[in-house]
Each structure stands twice: as structure tokens, then as C-alpha cells.
Write a structure and sequence with these properties.
The protein is mainly α. The protein folds into 2 domains: 2-41, no CATH class; 64-201, no CATH class. It is built from 7 helices and no strands. It has helices spanning 2-5, 30-41, 56-99, 101-109, 114-155, 165-191, 195-201. The longest helix has 44 residues, at 56-99. It is rod-shaped, with a radius of gyration of 32 Å. The termini are far apart.
């Protein structure tokens, strides 16, 4: 009975088809793809059962363009954020040195060299930045995985984690460089003063 109802539909082997996959030749142009799709569309009659033609190559190229634009926007936002972070960290480090200048002078009088004093402030700043970076990356991965998994659950798509390793590495390197410069300049300006002047400034 089932096969009899499909005899006049033109299906091969009397089996209806859900989709037809067409593989393009390597290096095919966009005009040639459009010509093939329009030619296939003309083979089907107009009506409610008009098939949907999807150009996967064009979709992939558009997604690559969107990904490139998104990466550029993230880079610009990250660059602006790092500039603001540099000045905020510079002001915070300068104020921290001014607040603890007497203690720093006492350490210098006890035999702490200028390089050791610089390293003390460097270690403090780098610990804060590294801890914040690790927490931010971990929280970002968890939130991204949860949102993507929930989105793919409704679309019935497999979950794939595509971690932007080079973007994260670049931002981490720039953040560490910004931290170093923001700590180096104020500490160097204090190290130019004598120990007596440092102790007098903190009195």
C-alpha cells in the first residue's frame, strides 16, 4: 500500500528523499555555485513542497567573515581595556608606593637593594594580575560552555569547544607587559631618591 501511493511521485525505488547533498568541484567559483543551485531549483515544481537550497560553502565563508570581525572587535575592546588598565594600575601602584614609602625606606635602610625593592612590588602586582586572569579565563570557559550547550540542546547540534588559544595568549602577554610597565616607572622614580629622603617623605 505504501509503495502504491508513491508510484506517481517519481521517487527512485519508490523511496522518498529527505535531502540531497551535492559535492562541488575543488576551486569552484561563487557564480558557478549560484548557477548550479538555480539550475537545480528550476527542476522542482512550484508549490508547497518547494525544496530549500542551502549553499554550505557560502555559509561557511560568511561565518569566517563574522568570526574575523568578531575577533577584531574583541581585540579592539581588549586593547582599549588594557590601556585603561595600564593607567589605573599606574595610579594605584603610585598611590600604594606613596602610602608605604616609609616602610619601603625602612626596608632599604635594612639592606634591601633597589632591584629587590622593585621585585617586591612586581611580585605583588603580578600575583594579583595572574590570579585575576586565571579566574577570568576559568569563569569565561564555564559560562561559554553552559550557554553553548544549552543553545545546542535546542538545535540538537553536537557540542564543540573551540578555545581561542592565540587570542588568550596575546591578551595575557599584553596584560603582563602592561603590569610590568605600570609598576616599573613609579618604583624607578622612588629608587632615584636617597634612603634619607624616602624616610623623610614618609614621616
Amino acid at each position: 500500500m505504501f509503495n502504491e501511493t508513491l508510484l506517481d511521485k517519481g521517487y527512485s525505488y519508490n523511496v522518498p528523499k529527505q535531502k540531497l547533498l551535492v559535492k562541488y568541484a575543488p576551486g569552484i567559483t561563487a557564480q558557478r555555485r549560484a548557477y548550479i543551485i538555480n539550475g537545480m531549483r528550476s527542476l522542482f515544481p512550484e508549490g508547497a513542497h518547494q525544496p530549500i537550497m542551502v549553499d554550505v560553502v557560502a555559509i561557511v565563508e560568511s561565518l569566517k567573515t563574522v568570526n574575523l570581525v568578531f575577533t577584531f572587535i574583541v581585540g579592539v575592546i581588549g586593547f582599549i581595556s588594557l590601556i585603561l588598565t595600564f593607567f589605573l594600575l599606574l595610579v594605584a601602584t603610585t598611590q600604594n608606593i606613596k602610602d608605604n614609602i616609609w616602610e619601603y625606606g625602612v626596608l632599604r635602610s635594612m639592606g634591601v637593594t633597589k632591584a629587590e625593592g622593585r621585585r617586591i612590588f612586581m611580585y605583588e602586582a603580578f600575583l594579583v594580575i595572574v590570579a585575576a586572569g586565571i579566574l577570568g579565563i576559568l569563569i569565561g570557559i564555564v559560562v561559554a560552555c553552559l550557554v553553548t550547550a544549552q543553545f545546542n540542546m535546542f538545535l540538537e547540534l553536537p557540542f564543540v569547544l573551540d578555545f581561542p588559544i592565540w587570542l588568550v595568549v596575546t591578551l595575557c602577554i599584553v596584560a603582563l607587559t602592561t603590569t610590568y610597565l605600570a609598576v616599573h616607572y613609579p618604583v624607578s622614580s622612588v629608587n632615584k631618591s636617597t634612603i634619607a629622603k624616602i624616610l623623610k617623605s614618609g614621616a
